[in-house]
Amino acid sequence: MSAKLSVDRDRCMGSGQCTFYAPATFDLDDDSIAIVVDDHGDGDDKILMAIEVCPTRAIARADAEGDNT
């Protein structure tokens, strides 16, 4: 996946689900809000799972063609 990931800080509730499923891609900052540490830190399957399980849908993915998920 050639994609750029982002986290909407206003929507993130800090559940940590993303860090559980894709720990090399996401981390929690000092405010317990998710951050992207490496867009390609984990395999596509783990990153997509992290996006899907986010309870507030705070993670966005824009692929190389500009398609946003």
Structure description:
Keywords: 4Fe-4S, Electron transport, Iron, Iron-sulfur, Metal-binding, Transport. Pfam families: Fer4_13. This protein is of the alpha+beta class and 69 residues long. The protein has a single domain (3-60), classed as Alpha-Beta Plaits. The chain contains two helices and four strands. A hairpin with a 5-residue loop joins strand 2 (26-28) and strand 3. It is globular, with a radius of gyration of 11 Å. The model has no long low-confidence stretch (mean pLDDT 92).
What characteristics describe this protein?
two-stranded antiparallel sheet, alpha+beta, 69 residues, globular, two-stranded antiparallel ribbon
